[in-house]
Design goal:
Layout: H1 3-24, H2 29-32, E1 35-40, H3 45-60, E2 64-70, E3 78-82
Length: 83
Amino acid sequence: MTKLKQVKKNLVLSQKLATFLVTSHKFNKTSSENTSFVPFSAKDLTLNKLNKRIVKDLVKEGKKVIEASETKDKDNPWTFNYL
């Protein structure tokens, strides 16, 4: 997968995630401040593999990271893993 394609796919996932976060009030400003959310697709395993590398690099840099995994469950469309 090209970097451009990865970026485009991550933008689409990030928009879905942002909409969910704003409408569900799952996170408040202080709990997610200075934290990187990295989205993971419910379907695209290639994208997920590449995003795992992003997470690894962010953690190595000492950043707070939340892995946001898209699910196929309409009632709970995202799961979160705090690193």
